[in-house]
Design a protein that fits this description.
mainly alpha, abc type-2 transporter like fold, four-stranded mixed β-sheet, 14 helices
Length: 368
C-alpha cells in the first residue's frame, strides 16, 4: 500500500463530499433539525388529553377526584356533562379522548371505606392514546383511593413498595427519543454516503479512469470507507449540542462514546459498501439503501419496544446495527455505562460489519 496514493484518494473523497452543497445540507439537516424535530414530535409521552366529566354525586370527594385527574398536565378538562347523549356527542366529534362518570353516593362510599367504582369511556380509535389514557385514569383513581382510605383508616400490616426510578426519574420518553434520533442520523449518513460515493464513480465513468492509474483496488476501497466514517463522526458534534439543549445528561465517557460510535458507523458503512457493489446507478443505490434502512430501523427498538415483538423478530433485531448503536448511546448517556457493560454490543457490531466488509471487498475486487 502506497501512503501517498491513499492520502490522495482520501483528500479527493473529502473534497467531493465537503464541496457538494446537497451533501452538506443533508448532513446538517439530519444531525440538527431532524434530531430536534423528531425528538419533540415522535415522543411517546401523551399529554393534554381531553377529559370529560359526568358528576352525578356532586360531593367533596367527587370534586376532589375531578381535581386529581386534571391537576397534572396529563388531562385537560374539556367539558362537564349532565347526560350520556351530550358526552357521546363529544366523543364522536373528537372533542374528548376519555370520559369519567362519577356515580351517585360516591362520596359516602369513599368516606366509609366501602368498595366503589367510576365509569370510564375511552375513545379507542387511536389505540396508543386510548391505552395510555386508560392507564393514566386507573393509576390516578387508585392513588386517589389509597390516599383517601389511608387518611381515614390506620395503616395495616402489609408490603408497601418504595419505588425509585434510576436514569430517568421523570419517566419522560424525550431523552430516549433524542438519543435514538442521534444514532439514526449517524446510521443513515453512514449507509448513504459511501453507497452514493462509490456508485457516482461508476455512473460518471471515473472508475474506469481510476483503473488505468497506479491506484490499487484495496486503496480505493479504503478511500471510500474512511471518509464517510470520519465525516459522519464529525457531523455528530452538532447533534451533541442539540442533545444538550434537550437536557439529556452525558453520564459516560466521551472517549468511550467516540470509540464505540466509530465502530457503530463502520458497521453502517459496511452496509453502504455492500449496496454500492451490487448497484450500478445512483437511483438503484438510494432505493436499495432505503430498502435496508427501514427494516433495520423498525428492528432497532426506537419505534416499538423490542420486548413487545414476536420472539423471532427479537432474535432478528440482533442483526440490526442500529439496535446496538442505540443501546450503546443510551447506556453511555443515561446510565454512565462503560466498556465493561457495553462490550457485547461492540462484539455484535464487529460481527455484523466484518462479513459485510468481506463480501463487499470480494465483489468489488471481482469488478475491479
Amino acid at each position: 500500500m502506497n501512503p501517498g496514493r491513499l492520502f490522495g484518494l482520501l483528500g479527493k473523497e473529502f473534497a467531493q463530499m465537503l464541496r457538494d452543497p446537497v451533501v452538506l445540507f443533508l448532513i446538517l439537516w439530519l444531525t440538527t433539525v431532524e434530531v430536534a424535530m423528531c425528538t419533540l414530535a415522535v415522543g411517546m409521552d401523551v399529554k393534554n388529553l381531553k377529559l370529560g366529566l359526568m358528576d352525578h354525586d356532586r360531593s367533596a370527594a367527587s370534586r376532589a377526584l375531578s381535581k386529581a385527574l386534571t391537576s397534572a398536565d396529563t388531562f385537560v378538562l374539556a367539558g362537564v356533562f349532565t347526560s350520556e347523549a351530550q358526552a357521546e356527542a363529544g366523543l364522536k366529534k373528537g372533542k374528548l379522548d376519555a370520559l369519567v362518570e362519577i356515580p351517585p353516593g360516591f362520596g359516602a362510599r369513599v368516606a366509609s371505606g366501602r368498595k366503589t367504582s367510576v365509569g370510564v369511556v375511552v375513545d379507542g380509535s387511536n389505540a396508543d392514546v386510548a391505552s395510555r389514557a386508560r392507564a393514566y385514569i386507573i393509576e390516578m383513581t387508585a392513588r386517589f383511593a389509597q390516599e383517601r382510605v389511608m387518611g381515614a383508616m390506620p395503616m395495616k400490616a402489609g408490603v408497601q413498595p418504595a419505588v425509585r426510578v434510576w436514569y430517568n426519574p421523570n419517566l419522560t420518553n424525550t431523552r430516549f427519543e433524542a438519543l435514538a434520533m442521534l444514532a439514526q442520523a449517524g446510521f443513515m449518513l453512514a449507509v448513504i454516503l459511501p453507497a452514493a460515493g462509490m456508485v457516482r464513480e461508476k455512473q460518471n465513468g471515473t472508475l474506469e479512469q481510476i483503473r488505468v492509474t497506479p491506484i490499487r483496488a484495496h486503496e480505493l476501497f479504503l478511500g471510500k470507507v474512511l471518509p464517510p466514517v470520519t465525516v459522519t463522526l464529525g457531523s455528530l458534534l452538532p447533534s451533541l449540542l442539540v442533545i444538550r439543549l434537550l437536557h439529556v445528561p452525558m453520564n459516560g465517557s466521551v472517549t468511550t462514546f467516540l470509540g464505540l460510535e466509530a465502530l457503530f458507523l463502520l458497521s453502517a458503512v459496511s452496509i453502504g459498501m455492500f449496496v454500492a457493489t451490487i448497484t450500478s446507478t445512483l437511483q438503484q443505490a438510494l432505493l436499495t439503501s432505503f430498502f435496508s434502512l427501514f427494516p433495520l430501523l423498525f428492528l432497532s427498538g426506537s419505534v416499538s419496544p423490542i420486548e413487545s415483538m414476536p420472539r423471532w423478530l427479537q432474535i432478528a433485531s440482533e442483526a440490526s446495527p442500529l439496535r446496538h448503536g442505540i443501546e450503546i448511546t443510551a447506556g453511555l448517556f443515561l446510565k454512565g455505562a462503560g466498556m465493561g457493560e457495553l462490550w457485547p454490543h461492540a462484539v455484535a457490531l464487529a460481527a455484523i460489519g466484518a462479513p459485510l466488509f468481506a463480501t463487499s471487498w470480494l465483489l468489488f475486487r471481482r469488478q475491479w
